Amino acid sequence: VADSADRRLVVSADVRLRAQVDRSDTTAADRTSGQVRARLGATFEISDRLGLGARLVTGDPDDPNSTDVQLSNFADDLQVSLDLAYVRFKAGDVTLYGGKLPQPFVRTDLVWDADVNPQGLGAVYRHALADGGSLRASGLYFVVDERAGGSDSSMLGVQLGYDSAQFGRWRYDVAAAYYDYTLGSVSGADSGDFRTNLLGADGHYLSDYHLGDLIVGATWSGGGDRWPVRIVGDYVRNFGAATRIGTGYGIDLALGRVRNARDWRITYGYSRTEVDAVLAAFSHDNIGIGTNYRMHALTLDYVPVPRTLLSAIWYHYRPDQARYAGNLAPRDWLDRLRLAFLVSY
Prior knowledge:
By secondary structure, the protein is mainly β. It has one helix and 17 strands. Strands 1-2-3-5-6-7-8-9-10-11-12-13-14-15-16-17 form a 16-stranded antiparallel β-barrel. The longest helix is centred in the middle third of the chain and has 4 residues, at 191-194. The relative contact order is 0.13.
């Protein structure tokens, strides 16, 4: 919503209520729980080139890939923090960011959780082509963990991409990225950040993280506006993995859209990662395993009225390599069912 005077201020908000059921054959007791998420954001255009952005969210401020709050603890008040606070500068086809900024890369959950907003400096270049396609390039200097008395942790990342023009009923897109992590200090990390990455006796990562990531997508519009078909594949390889394995891939197939009232969308995804294929601190948290898993995901979305969304998501997953399964039974398939209702403004 923009103010009526000059339309420079844009405010957005959403609240999501979610019920979750976790089931395991042997690993743990079944569990039913509930979560809530609330976000309030705003952008302000100071001029045609310069803008500001910020967002308040619920959730643990020490958890970079989740803004959900578990409904628990005798009705304690919810934690709220800033997950965005940035300055944006536009110059032609280039947009520069500084601060805690929106994710500049084309992504899937395999490598980047949707809630991860990096801190540092970012740049996005997008150039429209005469045929209706476009070229993209994104760069990021990510301050992961800075310490006055020791080595820092940071990341340099770059991604190049292309979005095609319309070819009959098809459009195509591709994005290739390289993320180079330097993980000196990890004192700012906790168990939720390390998750299933391999650690040495000194508490540091065993692997280096130099990730090559390729995303390829295609959209078919032959079924009409309400029933587009979208397929996306993502392949990642960690060239610094301490083991001989260190790759992951995912594929998602979606039918439908969730734009207007009474729209439907169904999505099926399959993903598999080897141990240390990704840095688990920033990959998805849909399940408790950050790497070394194989997972099926089935999602059904429905828009009952404008600005709302009903979702049902089923995750069916287990560890991939028994050697790195930790406390989980290697061949035990686990299930997680989520039912959610979202209202946005």
